[in-house]
């Protein structure tokens, strides 16, 4: 790939891609390595107190949190490598080459962390369904919107929550780094989607709305799903979860509007 030509485009050409290239430069600057995490200085996850049974329950709960994040990052590897393959624009390809590396590194870090605390737990079946809908979407506009504009924006607040609940651990440090990385992934996706939608007609608008209406009911199931290890907490947290889900759906609508999309046809699921 002719890097020089892409990074330094002829004057007046492809100005629309300047935003995507800015995120490419930022992504390279922010790159880190799994070995940079404080593996030998901090406990992997919160150690917990109380009886052995209580501690075992807490540790199962954390393993299930870690498993969901590992699952999400494994799916993100598939989605980002698909974006690298299908995006026709060289600027976007440069950017996606960094995102593939990020998602691979995230997966490596979760795997290492999970191995230190007893291995993988139960998968969220709805998360697999959501990822497959995005992987099988017909248009690049749908893929970028779902993956980068919607999911990678929502995940940032999840990382902040997990970090707050796991002070002084490798997990906290990992979540902080992932919040930064996904901030870049989201920003790059917004910049690219804006270019893709520049000349979007009614047909593309309708395609995106239809995709959202197929996806949202499954997103609700994913958001409210709890593995057995967190079933009790899940019941206690139900109201908070529903409230957070409302906020997430509203955020998605706002993001779509900020990209100039007509969201009047989006049917928000009843909660
Ligand atoms: Fe990731
Ligand atoms: Fe990401």
Strand content: under 5%
Q: Number of DSSP helices?
A: 10
Shape: globular
Helix content: over 70%
Task: Report what the structure shows.
With 271 residues, the protein is an all-alpha fold. It is 72% helix and 0% strand. It has helices at residues 3-7, 18-30, 52-86, 90-116, 125-136, 140-164, 170-196, 202-224, 231-236, 238-258. Helix 5 (125-136) runs antiparallel to helix 8, helix 6 crosses helix 10 (238-258) and helix 8 runs antiparallel to helix 10. It is globular and about 65 Å long. The mean pLDDT is 92. The structure holds fe (ii) ion (FE2) (2 copies). One fe (ii) ion binds at residues 76, 103, 152, 182, 185.
Q: What's this, in brief?
A:
With 271 residues, the chain is mainly α. The protein contains ten helices and no strands.
Task: Give the SSE map.
Elements lengths: L2 H5 L10 H13 L21 H35 L3 H27 L8 H12 L3 H25 L5 H27 L5 H23 L6 H6 L1 H21 L13
Helix pairs in contact: 2-4, 2-7, 3-4, 3-5, 3-6, 4-7, 5-8, 6-7, 6-8, 6-10, 8-10
The structure holds fe (ii) ion (FE2) (2 copies).
Labels describing this entry:
binds fe (ii) ion; 10 helices; 271 residues
